[in-house]
Amino acid sequence: MSNLTVAPKRSAETSGARSGARGRRRPRKPISSEFRTVVSPHQLNTRHGRAIYWTVLVVVVALFTAVFVFPLYWMVTGAMKSTEELVQIPPTFLPSHFGFEAFAEAWELMDLQRLLGNTALYAGGAWLFTLTFDVAAAYALSKLRPALGKVVLALMLATLMIPPMVIMLPAYLTVKELPLLGWDLLNTPWAIWLPAAANGFNIFLLKRFFDSIPRELLEAAEIDGAGPGRILWSVVVPVSRPILGVVSILTVVNVWRDFVWPLLVLPDSDKMSISIGIASLSRQMPQNVLIASLVIASIPTIVVFFLFQRHIMAGLTAGSLKG
User: Fold this and answer.
1) What's the whole-model pTM score?
2) Within 13 Å, how many C-alpha atoms sit on residue 70's CB side?
3) 231-268 per-position pLDDT tens digit
4) Main-chain dihedrals φ then ψ at residue 66, nearest 5 degrees
5) What domains lie within the chain, and their CATH numbers?
6) Which of 274, 251, 127, 122 is nearest to 192 (CA)?
7) 77 close to 291: Cβ distance less than 8 angstroms
């Protein structure tokens, strides 16, 4: 009888210990929801998953790189080929002789030094006027908030919906005879500088960035006795270097590659830009010399991009500032 009474007691103690152990078990960690991708992290940790992931990544990156880089490669190698090799079918991917004779001929025969100088003058002046007037306009709309500021901004944005070819004739007539003053700006750099500065898209980009600047910074400068101009120069401009870099690059590249507008307002051969000069002399030059001139014309913009690509990414992704 004693054995019969002890056994249930032990079983009860054992079951209690087991239930206590179950109660002390650490709860399972919830599945993390930060990974919301097509392939789960568990699949990426397997050998098969990693192989598929890296294969797809390498193929996609190589494909997109080839699509964007191949035209540049074909242009550079085409300038190194002879005229007979350029028209050869099937084409050759590598020139039979790597030489730079076509570049020297293009520099001398097409007077690229003068054309590059003219284009640099137009691009530099457009950049200076854009930063001067567009920054001031965006700062006024963002921080000073004048009367009817929203209406002015809406009208600026409405101009972005109009195709450029539609306003080309009114813009030409305006440059031909400047309103109120009656000046003829044709064959002058002002015909390039003023339209480049009147850019609603640049003002919109600058205003959006200026809106993200904390109001406390401006109020602190006002307490120190700084006026609106001093605040713009000493506070807003240093903070806005990323977006200023983006606007600068967009302005320089647009002026450098523009073709139709310089063709209309700069008919004088001595005032031509690089794109107009190459197009006017294209029929008189061998094909390899023409391609070499295109390579030389594209070098400045490529160099500018590689020097300021960090500012492009920082300016396009900038939406707020941490105080």
Assistant:
1) 0.75
2) 7
3) 888 888 888 888 888 888 889 989 998 899 999 999 88
4) -65, -40
5) 41-99 (no CATH), 111-317 (1.10.3720.10)
6) 122
7) no
